[in-house]
Every structure is written in C-alpha cells, then in structure tokens.
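W.,

You were right to be curious about this one. When I first looked at the sequence I had no strong expectations either way, so I just let the prediction run and decided to look at it fresh. Below is the sequence, 244 residues in total, followed by the output.
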Amino acid sequence: MDYYNKELDLKIPAHVAVILDGNGRWAKAKHMPRTYGHLQGSKVVEKMLYTVDELGVKYFTVYAFSTENWKRSDEEVGTLMNILRTYLKDCVKKSMKNNVRCRVIGRRDELSDDINEAIDNLEEQTKDNTGLTFTIAINYGGRDEITRAVRKLADKVKLGELKPEDITEDMISANLDTNYMPDPDLLIRTSGEQRLSNYLPWQLAYTEFYFTDCYWPDFNKDELVKAFIKYNKRERRFGGVKED
C-alpha cells in the first residue's frame, strides 16, 4: 500500500464496486463450458479480496448474481448457485482469519433455504470484524432495491408515521440494502461492456466509471492498479464547478 501511495502517488478509492463480466466468453474462448468460467471467476474474487485489502480499499462490492440472471439456462443457474453455496461457506473461515466483514445484498425470498442459512451464518460470524467490508450482491437488482425501499416508506406514510413531503434522499438511502456503507467511489466493469445492468443505480450517481476489455477471470492486481491510475486522473466535482 505504501508503494502505491508514495511511489505512484495514487489516492486509493475507499469503496470499489465491480461488475464481474466476461466469465462465459472467457470460457468459450478456451473451448470450455460457461460454467467453467464462473468457477474461475469466483477464484479471482477471492484473490482480489486480498489485493484490495492490501492496497487500502475499505469497501469492496461485487455483482455475483442479478435478478435477471434467473433467465439463463437451468444448468448455468444451478452451477452459479452451487458456486455460491461453496463460496459462502468457505468465506467464513477466510474472512475471520483476515478480519473481513461480509454482507449480502439483494432479495433473499427467492433463494433456497440452505443459501439463506449460509448467508445468515457468514454475516453473523463476521459482523464484528473491523477490516475490509466485503459485500456480495446476490439476486440483486437496483430497481428492485429502490422499489422495496419506497414500499417501506409508503408503509410508514400509510400508518401516519411519515408525511410524503418529509421524505428525503437520506431516508431513501437509509432504506436501501446498502445503508451500512458509503456510495462507491469507483465502479469497474470487465469484458468491454459499458452499461450498469441494473447495478446500484442510486448509489452510483457520482461514482467514477472504469471499463476494461479484460475478462474477469484474467483480472489481476496490475489491472486493478490501471483502474486506480485512471481514477486518480479524474476530477470529482459531485455536481459542483471548480473555481479558477
């Protein structure tokens, strides 16, 4: 971390969000099934946890499975769920060893009981850790998240606990799945695609975007540093105008 801060004079973003894209295409290029790409991609997530922690990132959020991913083939969805089952269980021991706090965002009512139990166990076991906060978006959709937040506020209005005119942006943020962490400073999407795909639309309002042609299974520390270098060249104004 000192090397990147001092020698390269890089400001490390506190919160990095990632869209892990290109697993299937990476596998296809190697004449392997898409499921192989997802398995390799999960291994890269594990490696990146150590890397971002080493560089000084405080929050690391990954898009593992979207509300739209259920439309994929039964085989691919089944493989993704099995990878998540294994990952959630293995993550407990490794997170405790490395002082990582883990959270999961997204709708849980459509997930199997054993996956929900694994999520609850992971969050409970790591809740008091004080290092990197690692968030996994599972069965997550940004519009769904905002809809659920609005419904919570609407219920309070219905009960007479809140007036519609008193609803603020902070109230909406407080009712989102991500209410425990700051908005991302940097979004990274791999594989060359340049869209959000329903990922954190509220939270990414003033986030810097970095798109790379690199497929996620090939993403590594050098690729991450490239993203940080680009990030450091951006001037973040948050809607304001810099005075001369």
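Here's what jumped out at me. The beta strands are 15-19, 59-66, 101-105, 133-140, 186-189, 208-211. And, maybe more interesting for your project: Residues 67 and 141 are 5 Å apart (CA to CA).

Coffee later to discuss?

I.
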